[in-house]
Sequence to fold (193 residues):
Amino acid sequence: MRTIKKNNVQRLIGFEGFTKYGVRTDKAEFVFFAVEPTNISVLSAVNIEMKIHRLMLLLSMFPELELLALDSCECFDSNKAHLKKRLDTEENENIRRLLKADYDFLDEIQTEMASARRFLFAVRFRREKEESIFKLLNRIEKAIAEHGFFARRLGKSDIKRMLALYFATSAAGDEIPDIEGENYLKMECENDV
Fold:
């Protein structure tokens, strides 16, 4: 009798599960801090240099701290390419106007979202015990604040939203359920009552 292996996708990407502080993969445990971005266009050159210097100091204090820059929503490039291809081949002028309006709309949204980036600090733990992880995370959080950055540790739902965007399962970063299809089971049970 063959046994069915569960979580093949999780195994493929190395995802093992959520931990008390972040997420565990087959290689390490990751903890993420969302960093509130600073609008440097309103800062003077001196203030920008100070911000860069503080970031350099922070990274030198904690070499295990990694930086991530992510889109906060899905990219529309493939949709725009499809519309462009349709525009090139469409002969009906009314349809062409509609396709052009759709293309312009996606272009406008993408331009607005170009500045909608999320910045994260990530810490990777390989074999540390929970107690040492807790102590190091507290030291890192304190140092981040002392160096003038506003950051908060991501919880499970925040990490799930980030993964949903990364793996393109949610265009808006909606939270994905713990169990695929769980919401349909709930609806089915409610309809039976």
About this structure: The CA atoms of residues 21 and 31 lie 6 Å apart.
